[in-house]
Design a protein that fits this description.
The complex is a heterodimer of chains A (518) and B (715). Chain A is mainly alpha-helical. Among the domains of chain A are: 72-236, no CATH class; 319-437 and 446-514, no CATH class. Chain A is built from 24 helices and 3 strands. In chain A, helix 4 packs across helix 7 (134-144) and helix 20 (396-406) crosses helix 23 (452-482). Chain B folds into 4 domains: 22-79, Alpha-Beta Plaits, CATH 3.30.70; 220-312 and 463-555, 3-Layer(bba) Sandwich (FAD/NAD(P)-binding domain); 315-459, FAD/NAD(P)-binding domain (3-Layer(bba) Sandwich), CATH 3.50.50; 574-714, Flavodoxin domain (Rossmann fold). Chain B is built from 28 helices and 25 strands. In chain B, the strands form 7 sheets. In chain B, strands 20, 21, 22, 23, 24 and 25 form a 6-stranded mixed sheet that branches. Chain B has a 5-stranded parallel sheet with strand order 7-6-5-8-19, sandwiched between helices. In chain B, a hairpin with an 8-residue loop joins strand 15 and strand 16 (441-451). Chain B is globular and about 85 Å long. The chains are: A mainly alpha (518), B alpha/beta (715). At the A-B interface, helix 1, helix 3 and helix 14 of A face helix 1, helix 5, helix 19 and helix 25 of B.
């Protein structure tokens, strides 16, 4: 900044002055307000690829009732309540119920059914689970001091997540997911092991969530800290619900109040820090409908999109998403090969070396995951090398991040496939566990929906679908984002496809020797 | 004068402290909404249209923190020093010889050079929070820019758009809780631009600007009271072309400006040019002509409208024994005679050696005590409140103590004792108060006695109950709220993020200012103390000017003259505003149909939601249509939606306004439409029609309603 000789900070005289706040008669404030112009003309082009097509609230038949329901403050409350009830039963059942995990409602519903359902929801919808999650819901009720009303004073410290943390996006969430998974593996919670372990884990998560809600503002926990956020935020991008988006972008751009961000009498400011006016992915829309309620211009709709759109279309690729995908892929690959006998031998050796009591050995666990990330990184660098990337504006991280987006479908498919054995083998036990406290034994305890070779077939089909989706994504993403940064565009596309194919095939083939291990 | 040596004002510079501000943008959370970009005073922020996130050019950043305060998602942080000069501030003058002194204690700028140096600290914020903080909403960046260009006349003209007495306001305003406190530098922890003293320099250099009515009308308006509120109303009414007559019980105009504020704070020369201008222009001042509330019907016979600005003039008298005896006077009487004695220079030593006990330690009490000192006496102020909860200006108390006034908080008088027929002794008792809301309690046994020669009652002023009944007095601190969420435009400005207390106080003032444009009864407006209880000069003046605009908007056309003034355009059609409270969309749809239908029937009509409707929308409308949905248990306990009822509860009086209302319902509206009519009738509105519209026949029902409204409006 130049200091004028009189000490005047020179106003940027070239900066144009805007007029988008109208001069209102009888309002001298509006006469004195001279906002700079906002950048709106480039918006259409920027959001062209990511704008969804269909606003569900405008559809015939379902549109109107849905709109009416979402305008109601009780909308999310009614989504959360059933899950809230189930989860408190899970906790109580785990502590006081029968010790056989297969007959105890807590572990049975959590590990045979819920985990699979969450995957289906995230792949089909996106953050559907977040909108009904009992952990976040409970924390939010306490934080807002209300079950559904719009209150003004939040309980707790209302801190903002420190900038140095928030800057890392989904990475904290990946960290908590890794730690939670390690704890779960160590105590064999999801096996499932002793029912009380499931209860304690749920209590731990609820407590941690509640504390986070009391320390930080809005849904900082859900966006940055929740272990599932990284998984849903990445894999959920395949979903067909775009979330709440603007109907007319110009209205949002010129909006002088931004009620959807700050909150109004009718709704809270976006708990997820997402602005419908510029959302280009469903990844951070928690589907809570607060913006829909608070918009004074009725300019927000609930949109649907074609599958994979939020994977392929975003122009703005985020490094934290890329890193999260590679770590999550590393984790699921680890969980695949650790079911094999050679890994059990390796794990035992590592444990005796470290004097660590039992599986999973931390070096093997974190090292295995790290290895996955390194492999993806090296492959991405290889793709970059053979493609002849331009040196300016196309660094290694950009290539790694972009290619990781293409790995989202196979990562999602892998997690889902890995859950299938538990589902097919044991899901009828949920019925047994429901009947158990009432002395009812429906006789389905040992019923299996599918058995070993057939389960593997289904797993391979799921992985096949995931591979196809990843290849399609790689084709589209590399064609648009990488080919343009390369001296050999066709090679960039081919190498990207090859890399994604190699990883997908590797992940798929491991299911053969796993023999539907759960 | 203090001089400029150091560029930074936020903290003392040290070796480690960064020399430039640094800006951190959380790319992860930045939504590219551009709230920061449109408000950045130096255009240091811009949008990266590839990534759609804000980016900063730190070389342009001055560290004012406006971006940080206006970001809805806390995605931008500013650290480091404020890049602004220390500026120049006039030091306050404490006369070494107080007796007989009428020198102004608070000094203005002495030279153009100094005022320019201070004015140059203003960075012309695109969304100037100082303007929101100013009760009159002076265009502060506007007049400062004119000043910096050397155009004093231009600066004064900008001021005159919103303030008729900048000379007085700039001296008596509490800048720290108004313009200067809301300055962007101040909101981010530094020293705000000395707006008050810059304004004073301009007003002193150009005492008045040309006052000409924009056009002449036949509108005859009476203004009751020639204090700040009355002068504000008269000035704006005259400018809008009305014929104005100002009544006052005193022999000279000015009200509290003349008798209530000592010359060492406010010399008469600071406000008298405005009155002189009004007199020259032909505004009639009927002085020594007291008007009582009972005279209103008579006034309304002779005038088209009346603005009541009678002020609060009678002192509050405590219920203690001995308060009626000789030697006990009220602040009004004392201040008036003290000011006269000091100005004309006679008997300025009349109180030499006398001990004056002042009951109260507010701003008026300080004025009394400091006047006592200037008349040669000794003064002690006592107040039963704890100093922590005192509502007096801290600088006022500081200055008084500096001059030698003894100010004792947590002390009250329980008895005044007669010595030779006049007050001679006072019994004081210590009190305690632990919370602001708590009434102070006497501490048993802690009693002292002091010799006094005079006791002045300065515990505040009381309003004439006759006036408060007519003026629909509201409790400034307890205005009804829809829900406790402030206007989002004010939130967007970043003022709330800077100082919630300051912002909510300013917004409350703003609401009262806008409300004062509405009639409190047929053809009656009320402003200032009679409207909101004892308040400040600038608030009363701003309300007076607002009421004048209300007069023109409401009866300007019916009385024959065209309605036009500073911010209005002349209406061709009758304007109608359809305000709706909608939940599921039915009421909104009905409201839209009503507005469309009215538009084809000779109205300039539009539909607007309760969230967006401002009182200016109501003021400018000839017809207000209000619609809401009904809530209840389908058939039992059915009422208009609670949110709608709350909204109506926040509306100003709507005397003389044509109102029509409707409810939309699914099964059975019960008495909802009638309840809505009653609510508006209670506000004084003329309810033309009300209807319940079934959601099954929404469009035809809304059209039929619009027809009936038009029919009723014709009659």
């Amino acid at each position: 900044m130049t200091i004028h000789q009189r000490g005047i900070p020179v106003r940027n005289a070239d900066a144009p002055q805007g007029e988008h706040i109208p001069k209102v008669k009888n309002d001298p404030i509006s006469v004195a307000v001279n906002l700079r112009p906002y950048q709106g003309e480039k918006a259409k082009e920027h959001f062209k690829t990511t704008d969804p097509g269909v606003d569900v609230t405008k559809l015939p038949l379902i549109g109107k009732p849905l709109a009416r329901a979402m305008k109601s403050r009780k909308f999310q409350f009614f989504l959360i309540v059933p899950n809230q009830i189930i989860f408190w039963i899970v906790i109580i059942s785990g502590i006081f119920g029968i010790t056989d995990p297969g007959r105890n409602f807590g572990p049975a519903i959590t590990w045979y059914l819920w985990f699979c359902l969450v995957f289906v929801m995230m792949v089909v919808v996106g953050r559907a689970w977040c909108s009904m999650c009992p952990f976040g819901g409970f924390g939010e009720w306490i934080q807002r001091r209300a079950l559904f009303q719009r209150t003004q004073k939040a309980l707790g410290l209302g801190k903002k997540l420190p900038e140095s943390w928030a800057g890392h996006g989904l990475v904290i969430s990946v960290g908590t997911f890794l730690v939670l998974t390690f704890i779960e593996e160590y105590f064999n919670i999801a096996g499932p092991g002793a029912p009380i372990a499931t209860s304690l884990m749920v209590i731990g998560i609820v407590t941690f969530a509640l504390l986070s809600f009391l320390v930080f503002e809005r849904r900082t926990f859900c966006r940055y800290i929740c272990p599932l956020s990284s998984l849903i935020g990445t894999v959920g991008a395949m979903g067909m619900v775009s979330g709440f988006r603007t109907r007319d972008r110009e209205v949002c751009m010129s909006c002088s109040t931004k009620d959807c961000m700050r909150g109004s009498e009718d709704g809270y400011g976006c708990p997820w820090y997402t602005w419908p006016g510029s959302a280009d992915t469903n990844s951070m829309c928690g589907l809570c409908s607060e913006c829909y309620k608070s918009c004074p211009s009725d300019n927000i709709g609930l949109f649907v999109q074609s599958p994979l759109k939020s994977v392929i279309a975003p122009v703005r690729r985020k490094a934290d998403v890329g890193l999260a995908v590679s770590i999550l892929l590393g984790l699921v690959l680890y969980q695949q090969y650790n079911a094999m006998s050679w890994y059990a031998t390796l794990d035992t050796k590592l444990n005796s070396f470290l004097h660590f009591p039992h599986y999973p050995d931390p070096i093997g666990y974190f090292g295995g995951i790290g290895l996955g990330v390194v492999v993806v990184w090296l492959l991405a660098l290889g793709v970059r090398k053979v493609s002849g990337a331009f040196t300016t504006g196309s660094n290694k991280t950009t290539w790694f991040t972009t290619l990781c987006y293409a790995l989202i479908p196979i990562t999602g498919a892998d997690y889902f496939a890995r859950q299938l054995p538990k589902f097919f083998k044991h899901v009828p036990r949920v019925l047994s566990s429901i009947g158990q406290p009432f002395g009812l034994h429906p006789g389905v305890y040992n019923v299996r929906l599918l058995t070993d070779p057939r389960i593997v077939t289904v797993q391979l089909m799921v992985m096949g679908l995931g591979t196809a989706a990843s290849l399609y994504a790689a084709y589209r993403i590399s064609g648009r984002d990488l080919a343009t940064q390369s001296r050999r565009p066709q090679v960039a596309v081919a190498a990207s496809l090859l890399m994604v194919f190699a990883i997908s095939v590797l992940a798929t083939l491991i299911y053969l020797p796993m023999h539907a291990a759960s | 004068m203090t001089s400029v040596s150091d560029r930074t004002v936020s903290g003392s510079p040290s070796v480690q402290s960064p020399s430039r501000p640094s800006v951190h943008i959380l790319a992860d959370r930045c939504a590219g909404c551009q709230e920061c970009i449109v408000r950045c005073p130096t255009a240091a922020l811009s949008l990266d249209t590839d990534q759609w996130v804000a980016v900063v050019d730190e070389d342009l950043c001055v560290g004012c923190g406006q971006c940080q305060r206006s970001c809805p998602f806390a995605a931008i942080f500013v650290e480091g020093p404020q890049m602004v000069t220390a500026g120049v501030l006039p030091t306050d003058l404490y006369p070494t010889e107080l007796v007989g002194s009428i020198h102004e204690v608070r000094q203005g700028f002495e030279s153009m050079e100094d005022v320019m140096a201070e004015a140059s600290r203003c960075i012309s914020c695109p969304d100037p929070t100082c303007v929101r903080g100013c009760p009159a909403h002076n265009d502060i960046p506007g007049f400062i820019s004119a000043l910096l260009e050397g155009d004093l006349q231009g600066a004064r003209e900008i001021l005159s758009l919103t303030s008729c007495m900048p000379g007085a306001c700039s001296r008596v305003c509490d800048w720290q809780s108004q313009c200067e406190g809301s300055c962007t530098w101040s909101l981010s922890g530094g020293r705000g631009v000395a707006v008050g003293r810059i304004e004073r320099f301009i007003a002193d250099a150009v005492p008045a600007v040309e006052l000409e009515p924009k056009r002449s009308t036949d509108l005859k308006i009476a203004v009751v009271g020639a204090g700040p509120g009355g002068i504000g109303a008269a000035y704006e009414l005259f400018r809008s072309g009305a014929k104005v007559t100002v009544f006052d019980s005193e022999a000279e105009p000015g009200g509290v400006l003349r008798w209530g504020i000592p010359a060492y704070v406010l010399p008469n020369s600071a406000w008298q040019p405005t009155v002189a201008q009004l007199l020259d222009a032909g505004v009639e001042f009927r002085l020594a002509s007291p008007v009582s509330p009972e005279d209103m019907p008579k006034l309304l016979d002779s005038f088209d409208g009346v603005v009541i600005a009678a002020g609060a003039t009678s002192a509050i008298v405590p219920k203690i024994s001995g308060v009626e005896m000789a030697g006990v006077v009220d602040a009004t009487t004392f201040l008036e005679s003290a000011k006269e004695q000091l100005i004309d220079g006679t008997s300025v030593t009349s109180m030499t050696g006398k001990h004056v006990l002042v009951l109260g330690a507010g701003n008026t009490a300080m004025d009394v005590a400091r006047s006592v000192l200037r008349l040669g006496g000794v003064a002690t102020c006592v107040d039963w409140m704890d100093e922590r909860f005192s509502r007096a200006r801290p600088d006022e108390i500081r200055e008084a103590r500096h001059e030698g006034v003894r100010v004792d908080f947590c002390t009250t008088v329980t008895q005044l004792i007669d010595v030779d027929g006049v007050v001679g002794r006072a019994v004081l008792n210590a009190t305690e108060q632990n919370e602001a809301s708590q009434i102070p309690k006497l501490i048993a046994g802690k009693v002292t006695e002091v010799d006094v020669d005079m006791v002045v009652l300065a515990m505040g002023y009381r309003l004439d109950p006759g006036w408060t009944r007519i003026s629909k007095q509201v409790d400034f601190g307890r205005l009804p709220q829809v829900v406790g969420i402030p206007d989002r435009r004010w939130m967007a400005s970043g003022m709330y993020a800077g100082s919630e207390k300051l912002a909510s106080l300013a917004l409350t003032r703003e609401r009262v200012r806008l409300d004062s444009a509405f009639q409190v009864a047929d053809r009656i407006w009320s402003v200032g103390d009679v409207r909101i209880g004892p308040s400040t000069v600038v608030t009363a003046m701003a309300q007076g000017m607002s009421a004048a605009r209300g007069v023109i908007a409401e009866i300007g056309t019916t009385a024959g003259g065209p309605a036009d003034h500073a911010y209005t355009s002349s209406p061709k059609l009758r304007t109608a505003v359809v305000i709706y409270e909608s939940a599921g969309g039915n009421t909104k749809k009905a409201a839209t149909v009503v507005a469309q239908s009215l538009s084809t029937r000779g109205f300039d009509a539009r539909a607007i939601s309760t969230t967006l409707a401002k009182s200016s929308d109501l003021l400018d409308a000839d017809l207000i249509v209000f619609g809401t949905w009904v809530e209840g248990l389908l058939l039992a306990k059915v009422h208009p939606a609670e949110k709608a009822t709350r909204y109506i509860g926040t509306l100003p009086p709507l005397n003389g306004k044509d109102v029509a209302c409707f409810v939309t319902f699914g099964l059975n509206p019960k008495q909802s439409a009638g309840e809505l009519s009653e609510a508006f009738a209670r506000l004084g509105a003329n309810v033309l029609a009300s209807a319940a519209i079934s959601s099954k026949h929404l469009i035809s029902g809304a059209q039929a309603f619009a027809r009936s409204v038009q029919g009723a409006a014709k009659q």
